[in-house]
DNA sequence: TATCGCTACT
């Protein structure tokens, strides 16, 4: 930890109002620029952002550290990008951004949905200044590409980085996990261990998320063992990822053991992970029991808690129960049901064989049906041998998601069961025609080129 | 010479 943070933390723990320090700084004849720079950071850590800008404006001749302090004080806000542009456009001084400036800016771009091209041009600048292979910049850049769903670009940045330390690996592992590249994510985790780079709660929870998505029991166990050795097993996030992983792998007893061992530190997210583990097993009784316990312990159930309950009901085909809980969620808990809750409701009606009601809900609910809704209706109609409806739903599903091969598989099954071979063949042909050229995106080289053009380089 | 990056529940 560096000096500035030490000072900042000390001031916070002593409950010193930064404004007192500010007044002293202004009065003292010994004040230099670094005192102002520290104040900017101190104010932002105390959630007094407007004062950060005020201090900055009081600095007689701000330097790059002042600018970077101001920019990072406004991380995740568009103001941070504006300040950066002001700095570049400054008429009298020429400030060259450094690695820390870029690290903050990449973080901001990652958090703003509209700042993709801004991030690309920053990447180009950092390439020219040779910052993108530095650990701090590189990890922030990996995260940036991760948030914009470009894991291959992130991997390219990662591969070109020098001195990859634990945060770089964490960022990459988490990126691949968040983008459903589970096997790659686990292999980077393995690579990290081979190279003796320390793991962190971030990399461990990222790897666990991948193992969970793969429902890979063996990997969960291995990472669990590692978490125990590394002393991360009491961490809430790691614990939650373990509960989720064991649950998804179908080992609810292992999930429950982790849950019980850590219950004193767990929050509602962890409870939800346990609930959804039971729900995926179709263990409705355990879900309801745990839901009740959650309330007894003083937690408030949220949308995810209700989703777990409704998932269980959907798997069990409990239509009227689902209806009741949706109502309860809205009226007694003040939570508005989302698309996923309606999808469960539709699934429950469908599984119960009330296909028309299920379709009616899909048409009348306050959301546009998505692929999951059509898939629920498709599997329900297939389950009950309603081949006409199944065919219709398969078409709707393919309209929203032309690449969904499950549409073909499920519809083909029910159609062949009724001997409708011609329609199976037609379906197959339609799938082929729909399979338009997959646009895998432009190559890395192309994007790099574009970035240089963008900056006139 | 102060400023920086990565986690869990559909």
TrEMBL record:
**Keyword annotations of the record:** Repeat
One molecular function GO term is: RNA binding
Which NCBIfam families is this protein grouped with? PPR
Task: Give the PROSITE patterns listed for this entry.
Answer: PPR
The PPR repeats are found at: 267-301
GO BP field: RNA modification
Q: What is this protein called?
A: Pentatricopeptide repeat-containing protein
């Amino acid at each position: 930890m560096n000096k500035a943070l030490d000072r900042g933390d000390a001031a916070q723990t002593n409950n010193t109002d930064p404004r007192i320090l500010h007044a002293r700084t202004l009065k003292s004849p010994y004040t230099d620029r670094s005192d102002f720079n520290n104040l900017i950071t101190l104010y932002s850590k105390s959630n007094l952002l407007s004062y950060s800008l005020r201090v900055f404006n009081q600095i007689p001749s701000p330097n790059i550290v002042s600018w970077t302090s101001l920019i990072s004080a406004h991380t995740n806000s568009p103001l941070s990008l504006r300040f950066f542009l002001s700095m570049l456009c400054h008429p009298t001084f020429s400030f060259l951004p450094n690695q820390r400036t870029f690290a903050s800016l990449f973080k901001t771009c990652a958090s703003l949905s509209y700042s993709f091209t801004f991030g690309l041009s920053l990447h180009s600048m950092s390439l020219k200044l040779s910052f993108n292979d530095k650990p701090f910049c590189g990890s922030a850049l990996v995260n940036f590409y991760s948030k914009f769903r470009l894991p291959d670009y992130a991997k390219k940045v990662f591969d070109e980085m020098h001195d990859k330390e634990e945060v770089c690996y964490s960022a990459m592992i988490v990126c691949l996990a968040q983008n459903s590249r589970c096997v790659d994510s686990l292999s980077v985790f393995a690579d990290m261990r081979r190279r003796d780079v320390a793991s962190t709660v971030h990399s461990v929870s990222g790897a666990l998320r991948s193992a969970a998505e793969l429902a890979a029991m063996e990997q969960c166990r291995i990472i669990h063992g590692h978490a125990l050795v590394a002393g991360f097993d009491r961490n809430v996030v790691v614990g939650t990822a373990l509960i989720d992983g064991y649950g998804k792998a179908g080992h609810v007893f292992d999930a429950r053991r982790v849950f019980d061992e850590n219950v004193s530190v767990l929050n509602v997210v962890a409870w939800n992970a346990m609930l959804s583990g039971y729900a995926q097993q179709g263990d409705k009784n355990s879900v309801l029991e745990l839901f009740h316990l959650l309330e007894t312990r003083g937690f408030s159930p949220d949308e995810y808690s209700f989703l777990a309950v409704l998932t269980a009901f959907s798997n069990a085909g409990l239509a009227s129960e689902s209806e009741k809980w949706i109502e309860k969620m809205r009226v007694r808990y003040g939570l508005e049901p989302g698309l996923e809750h309606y999808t469960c409701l539709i699934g429950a009606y469908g599984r119960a064989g009330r296909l028309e009601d299920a379709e009616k809900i899909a048409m009348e609910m306050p959301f546009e049906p998505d692929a999951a809704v059509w898939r629920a209706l498709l599997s329900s109609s297939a389950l009950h041998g309603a081949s006409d409806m199944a065919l219709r739903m398969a078409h709707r599903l393919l309209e929203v998601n032309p690449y969904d091969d499950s549409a073909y598989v499920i519809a083909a099954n029910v159609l062949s069961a009724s001997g409708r071979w011609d329609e199976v063949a037609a379906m197959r042909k339609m799938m082929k025609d729909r399979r338009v050229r997959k646009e895998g995106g432009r190559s890395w080289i192309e994007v790099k080129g574009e970035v240089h053009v963008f900056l006139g380089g």
